[in-house]
Each structure stands twice: as structure tokens, then as C-alpha cells.
């Protein structure tokens, strides 16, 4: 009950005479003083089972300022996220769009450079007739900075099509030195129309449709890959 309803009751006597002294403590069936009860509601902060202030116990919510260690972890996370969004100097989209193509020259990585900057793609290499005929047929997804590198034994006239191909592709045709001579953008999935690459093509890189325009890749760009002979490469691996 509320504080305004609290009353004290005087004891009664059955015969004349002095009245009994007023009891100062709580009566068995009378109003009780305000305070914690055995099974009643507890005041705020009354114990481990009661409600408490924010952060008062191990199972309660904690304040947002958890000390210098937590703040440092949050700052490190923010810096990590920003590092993936800010373009690196001298590249079209920096690390987030295919890092600068320096570093080790390995078969699963192809570098590209031009007046637009540099980029690097994770590639699958197909260098036989069967692999080139199949290409990326049936693939439902191609990671953003991935592609397929078609390698021919010698420079020749080539043409591609999109039979059984499920995703749009950009095709970069390059000569024996790895220099891009032609770019075909956004080839249509399933289209059987031949896509000519021109004369003297020895390397073809297929990447996600729209990536060439996004990065600015154009004829004159140079590829860097171990499949391109170092003695004739426009951008050799040992550079």
C-alpha cells in the first residue's frame, strides 16, 4: 500500500483502568512499515535478484564506456574498415578495387596497369583447347576481383561467344607482349554472336561485366603474368 494509507492502531482494554502502552513495533495483522518483504517487491538495488542500476551486476547491461582497452578496439575496427574504403594513391580504386599490382609474380594473380592506375586480379589459367572451349560456362558467380586468363600458344585471330555463360563479362584481348589491343564490355549471357578480338591475340582476360569501365581499363593497358614471356613482356615479372 502507499505511504498515505499507513495507520497505527491503538490497543483496546476490556475493563476500566490504565490503557495498555502503545506498541512501537509492527502488529501481526496491522499495517507494516515500508521496507523489503520476504516475498514482495524489492527496492532498486536491493540484492542480486532485484532490479539494479545499469551495470550493477554480471547479468545486467553495462555502460558504453568500458575503458581504454575497449575504446582502442573500436578505433582499430574503424581504421580497418576505412582502409578497405579509401583508394590507395596512384590506383583507380586502390586496395579495395584490386590493389596495386606490384609484388610477387604468381600464376594465380594477373596485374594490369595503364594511365588509369593499377589493378590485380585473382585468375584461373586455361592454356589448352578443352579448357579454352569451356571457359566460364555454367558459372553462376565470379568474385569481384577474379577472372579467367586464356593463354594461346602463339598470337592469332580469336573470337569468343557467350554460349551457356550465365553472367555478363568484360573481355580484354592482349598481344604477345601482354598489351591490351581490344576491350569488349558487358558481353550478354547466352548470346551466340561471335565477339572478335582482332589479329595477333595471345592472351584474353575475362572479368566481371562493367569492371573495365569501373577501373578505366582500355587498349594500351599492360598485363603482368608469368605466362607472358619476360623477354618480350611490356610489363615483365622482374620489373
What can you tell me about this protein's structure?
There is one protein chain. The chain is α+β, with helices and mostly antiparallel strands. The protein has helices at residues 68-83, 129-134, 211-215; strands at 109-114, 117-126, 146-160, 169-174, 180-187, 195-208, 222-224. The chain is built from three helices and seven strands, in the order αββαββββαβ. Strands 5-4-6-3-2-1-7 form a seven-stranded mixed beta sheet. It is globular and about 40 Å long. It starts with 67 loop residues before the first helix and ends in a 15-residue tail after the last strand.
Strand content: 25-35%
Give the strand line-up of the largest sheet.
Answer: 5-4-6-3-2-1-7
| Helix-strand topology string | HEEHEEEEHE
- The outline comes out as globular
- Structural class based on helices, strands and sheet pairing: alpha+beta
- Radius of gyration over C-alpha positions, nearest whole angstrom: 39 Å
Unreliable stretches, pLDDT < 50, 5 or more residues?
1-17, 25-69, 76-101
Average of the residue pLDDT scores: 73
Amino acid at each position: 500500500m502507499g505511504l498515505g494509507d499507513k495507520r497505527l492502531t491503538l490497543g483496546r482494554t476490556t475493563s476500566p483502568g490504565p490503557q495498555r502502552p502503545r506498541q512501537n513495533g509492527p502488529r501481526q495483522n496491522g499495517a507494516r512499515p515500508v521496507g523489503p518483504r520476504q516475498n514482495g517487491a524489492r527496492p532498486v538495488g536491493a540484492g542480486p535478484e532485484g532490479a539494479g542500476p545499469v551495470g550493477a551486476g554480471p547479468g545486467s547491461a553495462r555502460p558504453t564506456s568500458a575503458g581504454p582497452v575497449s575504446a582502442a578496439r573500436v578505433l582499430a575496427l574503424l581504421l580497418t574498415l576505412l582502409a578497405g574504403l579509401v583508394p590507395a594513391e596512384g590506383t583507380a580504386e586502390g586496395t579495395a578495387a584490386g590493389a596495386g599490382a606490384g609484388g610477387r609474380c604468381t600464376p594465380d594473380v594477373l596485374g594490369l596497369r595503364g594511365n588509369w592506375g593499377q589493378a590485380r586480379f585473382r585468375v584461373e589459367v586455361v592454356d589448352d583447347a578443352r579448357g579454352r572451349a569451356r571457359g566460364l560456362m555454367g558459372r553462376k558467380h565470379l568474385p569481384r576481383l577474379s577472372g579467367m586468363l586464356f593463354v594461346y600458344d602463339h598470337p592469332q585471330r580469336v573470337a569468343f561467344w557467350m554460349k551457356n555463360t550465365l553472367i555478363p563479362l568484360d573481355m580484354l584481348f592482349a598481344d604477345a607482349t601482354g598489351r591490351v589491343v581490344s576491350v569488349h564490355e558487358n558481353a550478354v549471357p547466352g548470346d551466340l554472336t561471335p565477339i572478335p578480338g582482332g589479329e595477333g591475340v595471345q592472351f584474353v582476360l575475362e572479368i566481371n561485366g562493367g569492371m573495365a569501365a569501373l577501373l578505366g581499363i582500355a587498349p594500351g593497358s599492360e598485363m603482368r603474368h608469368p605466362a607472358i614471356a619476360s623477354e618480350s613482356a611490356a610489363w615483365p615479372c622482374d620489373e
